[in-house]
Amino acid sequence: xxxxxxxxxxxxxxxxxxxxxxxxxAPQPALVAATKAPTRDAASVARDKYRHPVQTLSFFGVxxxxxxxxxxxxxGWYTQILAPYLAAKGTLYAAGPSEKSLATVKAKQAATPxxxxxxxxxxxPTSDAAAxxxxxxxxxVLTFRNVHNWRFGKTDQTQAAFDQxxxxxxxxxxxxxxxxxxxxxxxxxxxxxxxxMKRSSVxxxxxxxxxxLAGESKVNANPRDTHxxxxxxxxxxxxxxxxDTNRTRYAAIGESDRMTLxxxxxx
Length: 267
Hints:
Layout: E1 11-12, E2 18-19, H1 29-35, H2 42-45, H3 48-51, H4 53-59, E3 67-71, H5 79-86, E4 91-96, H6 103-111, E5 119-123, E6 138-144, H7 147-152, H8 158-168, E7 169-182, H9 191-194, E8 197-198, H10 199-209, E9 212-217, H11 247-253, E10 258-264
Parallel strand pairs: 3-4, 3-6, 4-5, 6-7, 7-8
Antiparallel strand pairs: 1-2, 7-10, 9-10
Helix pairs in contact: 1-5, 8-10
């Protein structure tokens, strides 16, 4: 694991805030067991070497008794781990923009109800309080590779998304963000077209919502990623936008270079 040491120097942010990067707690046996759940798809398990679920969720401090919100779960890659991990004593909200966006997760719940028995659903983002995650109830909110979608979709929803994630958390609660990372000094590569986001951009949105950056990890960093593909981050696995063109090269690079940031809602 390539986490920054707790004894590392403090990180000075552009806003002037000071953050100490911390090591995660030792992985809980229940979390390790969840990554080995028989309900996980083989294709999902094959991506563990890129997405490092045990280390990532440990860094975010997710406990089996928590109320956790997974924002825009998509195909349910992380949901397949979080659902069984929280099934006994916790609660998982899968929060998507529409009923259709949650169809894959709901199908998995129908097929393996025991593993998803405490999984609930919510709309995000939304102005309908009845459809939202109840305010002040979540211990942890997680979002994996979604910020660029909010930022560069049909409308910019980024600040609204961070504001709503802030609202759903309890005071002292954690927001965990994993996002494709564009180096701060990148030249000739635009966030809007590449799918990558600068760390400073993500931190700015979170800070404006009221969050405090509490730590970061290099567990999902990939130094082989050059960030400069004509068709953006989707050139790399698992998407391979260019098809078989240079596929061996992109497979050798692996999945994208990602920032892993842990924010806290102040008490």
